[in-house]
Specification:
Blueprint: H1 8-19, E1 31-35, E2 38-41, E3 46-49, H2 52-55, H3 64-76, H4 87-100, E4 104-108, H5 111-130, E5 136-140, H6 149-153, H7 158-161, E6 171-174, H8 179-185, E7 190-195, E8 198-199, E9 205-206, H9 209-222, E10 225-229, E11 253-256, E12 267-271, H10 292-307, H11 310-330, E13 335-341, E14 344-349, H12 354-363, E15 366-367, E16 369-371, E17 375-378, H13 386-402
Parallel strand pairs: 3-15, 5-6, 5-7, 7-10, 10-11
Antiparallel strand pairs: 1-2, 2-3, 4-12, 8-9, 11-12, 13-14, 14-17, 16-17
Helix pairs in contact: 3-10, 4-10, 11-13
Bound molecules: pyridoxal-5'-phosphate.
């Protein structure tokens, strides 16, 4: 049946509902433009964006330098395949290794793909170097590594896994932050541990630095690979390039995406040591991985983060925001806990109203995200100021008084 559209919003919403697979729950807003930490709907209303495209747009929306680099590269060379050398890919690989302490880079297009690569490295490492075909990859309860079948098999949350069973074998779940259980889980069969330094989709649960260090030591003792999934925590989000750097721990494999391209889809799997020697020519690849356009975008993101001091900004404004949220809690707001680091914060509410809070905040032009019924996720662009933080907390305060 043909629908009669009354406004652009209604027209787009009707088309979306008719033709787009409904795997996403939409909020009732049509976004048409972005600038810095603000998004605009088709009527020109401005929204303060504390979601940043799910921890993606770290340098803010439409940063002029990022836009310029993408436009120039698009007008020069977009894509040629990995049969050829291209300068942006080589230069980006160098920069990523310098920033991370890794030695080799595989480029892909998303976080799930970066983790697929990490899992393939661990599997081949177990089969051919460790020679333990009955290997196990240890993953943490509450983790999220993506929705492709390998990454999903490492994602230890029933709601994501259940409909898609059987999963890939060889994963073993441990409770997060339980050092004793981690030690118990390790054996000669352990090929790798995969973890997020702060669990994102699981509800913003930081992994203790002592736990990360123990994981590193156990991997050294049992000849296993430490895989850090920095898809959400990486690229400045926590106030360092990579969250593992806070703990002084160096993984063997690092999965990256989200903030890396600042909004342009690009992922990467970084490796060092034996992990960087596992795969041979022809054993993995992807058509778009590391194309000149994606790599130029990521190079521009690095330049912006460095020039504008965004790591320090994420740390400073993140601390400020966390403090403000804790003050809200102390003043009696229904907040159980404020968790996280830098500009990756979770507010656990004491009432199951997170989704209502998101909707009411949206009506007041603040974009937030709910993880389940209790947790609000705050992952704004790294460019926000203390004034933006004040504005967001004021709106949140009013909304929490209403619910
Ligand atoms: C830690 C982590 N790993 C992997 C993924 C999957 O990334 P993508 O959605 O780009 O496949 C996500 C996405 O939220 C994530 O937060």
């Amino acid at each position: 049946m043909q629908t009669v559209a009354h406004s652009l919003f209604e027209e787009v919403a009707a088309l979306d509902q008719q033709y787009v697979l409904p795997v996403y729950r939409r909020l009732p807003v049509l976004l048409v433009r972005g600038h810095g930490a603000r998004l605009y709907d088709e009527q020109g209303n401005a929204y303060l964006d504390f979601l940043a495209g799910i921890a993606v747009c770290g340098v803010g929306h439409c940063h002029p330098h990022l836009v310029q680099r993408i436009a120039e590269q698009a007008a020069t060379l977009m894509h040629v395949s990995n049969f050829f050398y291209t300068e942006p890919q080589a230069r980006l690989a160098q920069r990523l290794c310098e920033l991370s302490g890794m030695q080799k880079v595989f480029f892909c297009n998303s976080g799930a793909e970066a983790n697929e690569m990490a899992i393939k490295v661990a599997r081949k490492f177990a089969n051919t170097i460790k020679r333990t075909p009955d290997y196990e990859i240890v993953a943490l309860e509450g983790s999220f590594h993506g929705r492709t079948m390998g990454a999903l098999s490492a994602t230890m949350q029933v709601k994501y896994q259940e409909p898609f069973k059987p999963l890939l074998p060889g994963f073993r779940m441990v409770p997060r932050n339980d050092v004793h259980a981690l030690r118990e889980a390790f054996s000669e069969r352990t090929a790798a541990v995969i973890l997020e330094p702060i669990q994102g989709e699981g509800g913003i649960h930081p992994i203790d630095e002592a736990y990360l260090r123990e994981a590193r030591q156990l991997c050294d003792r049992y000849n296993a690979l430490l895989i850090a999934d920095e898809v959400q925590t990486g690229f400045g989000r926590t106030g360092a390039w990579f969250a593992y750097q806070h703990a002084g721990v160096l993984p063997d494999v690092v999965a990256l995406a989200k903030g890396l391209g600042g909004g342009f889809p690009v992922g990467a799997c970084l490796m060092r040591g034996v992990a960087a020697e596992v795969l041979q020519a022809g054993e993995h690849g992807t058509t778009y991985g590391g194309n000149p356009l994606a790599c130029s975008a990521a190079l521009a993101v690095i330049e912006i983060i460095e020039r504008e001091g965004l790591l320090a900004n994420a740390q400073r404004v993140g601390n400020y925001l966390k403090h403000k949220l804790e003050q809200l809690q102390q003043a009696g707001a229904p907040i159980r806990e404020v968790r996280g680091r830098g500009l990756m914060l979770g507010v656990e509410l004491s009432l199951p109203v997170a989704r209502t809070v998101v909707q009411k905040a949206l009506e007041r032009r603040l974009i937030l995200n709910a993880i389940g019924d209790y947790v609000l996720r705050l992952v704004p662009p790294l460019v926000i100021t203390e004034r933006d933080a004040d504005e967001a907390v004021e709106i949140l305060q009013r909304v929490l008084q209403e619910v």
